[in-house]
Amino acid sequence: MKKETKPQYVIGIDYGTDSCRAVIIDAANGYEISSAMAAYPRWSKGLYCDPGKNQFRQHPMDYIESLEIVMKQIHDKTGQDVLPFVEGIAIDTTGSTPCLITDTLCPLAMLPEYKDNPDAVSYTHLRAHETVLDLVCRLLLEKKKNKKKNEIIKQHHLQTPSLHNQHHIHT
Q1: Contact 20/11 with Cβ under 8 angstroms?
Q2: HSE-CB of 120 using CA atoms within 13 angstroms
Q3: Which residues contact 23 (CB under 8 A, 6 or more apart)?
Q4: What is the H or E stretch that residue 15 is in?
Q5: Which residue of 77, 88, 139, 150 pairs with 34 in a disulfide if CB–CB is 3.0 to 4.6 A?
Q6: Could you read off the pLDDT of 100-113 as tens digits, one per residue?
Q7: Residue 139 exposure: Cα atoms within 13 Å on the Cβ side
Q8: CB 66 within 8 A of CB 40
Q9: pTM of the model
Q10: Who's near 82: CB < 8 A, 6+ residues apart?
């Protein structure tokens, strides 16, 4: 008697410069079952970015909201035929995206007082043409130029009592 095997799928999620993409693959044969893409909502509106300055920033909510959109698209396309049999999820990103956080690891841009502040959102640092050395030099120059901004954020951190249990991220 032949043993019946249940299907096995994996989900791949890729956070790019301007969008989130997801794909479901049949683990037995490598075939693509479904895919989806969602642009970052704030990026699409041109918020926090200035291509003339080669400045590209993403708000942390862009990552959360675009992931919710692609996973809903995947669910709508595959439903109960595939999702209960997902065995793994892999996540990939385009590059480094530093994000200022509180002492409880909450991104500053998630706090009401910083939600629209372009200096509190994530900053995609490595540009396609840069080497690691270029990146280090550019970051050192930016650090010097932005010293005042960093001091303001540091002052806020020192003046604010512990944020533990005061701010929670809900997805």
Answers
A1: no
A2: 20
A3: 11, 12, 32, 34, 35, 36
A4: strand 9-15
A5: 77
A6: 788 888 888 888 88
A7: 15
A8: yes
A9: 0.66
A10: 7, 9, 24, 33, 34
